[in-house]
Amino acid sequence: MKRYPSQSRCTNIRQSYSISISEYDWDKWVPFTVPAGDALQLEFSMLSPFHRIDLLPLSQSTDAAVFGTSFTLPDQHGIFNFKVNYKRPFTTYLEEKRTVSVRHMAHDEWPRSYVISGAWPWLSGIAVTATGFVAFCAVWMYSKPTDKVASKKTR
């Protein structure tokens, strides 16, 4: 069961992005190559860019080139854009934008507390307190009450 939408990302995780680009050369599609001294960039932005990263060639097929990169998402939640905006003279503009929400991890996405070694003192404290309470209740319930001295009231 998938609980969170695919557009949702968590903060402080490693995120990968890739885009496939081809160009039309006379009568066929060929892989796009970035000219020397130029860069194809990914902009990860909310209102202003948090990251502006060069996209590097990852692979190439007969009709397209795949460019990509990896980066760590910022520790801020909100609505962000993955944006590629490549505008050069004498070429068709390349503009691709994908909007995603970045959120903090939900409570059920964290590891269990017994996996985190820093939580062991607190967990052992809870166990000792619970054990002590049960032992106290057992002693209280099964101990014999003291004999009361009957006092005589004579009048």
Please, could you describe this protein's structure?
This protein is mainly β and 155 residues long. It has one helix at residues 120-142; strands at residues 8-10, 14-25, 28-31, 41-45, 49-54, 56-60, 65-72, 78-86, 94-103. It is rod-shaped, with a radius of gyration of 32 Å.
CATH fold description of the largest domain: Immunoglobulin-like
Overall mean pLDDT score?
Answer: 85
Q: Spatial order of the strands in the main sheet?
A: 1-9-8-4-5
Biggest sheet descriptor: 5 strands, mixed
Which stretches are poorly predicted, pLDDT < 50 over at least 5 residues? 1-5
**Percent range of helical residues:** 10-25%
Question: Count of DSSP helices?
Answer: 1
Q: State the end-to-end distance.
A: 81 Å
**Spatial shape:** rod-shaped
Overall CATH class of the largest domain: Mainly Beta
The assigned CATH architecture of the largest domain is: Sandwich
The ordered string of helix (H) and strand (E) elements is EEEEEEEEEH
| % residues in beta strands | 35-45%
* Integer tally of domains: 2
Q: Given the helix and strand composition, which structural class is it?
A: mainly beta
Rg over CA atoms, rounded to whole Å, is 32 Å
Number of strands: 9
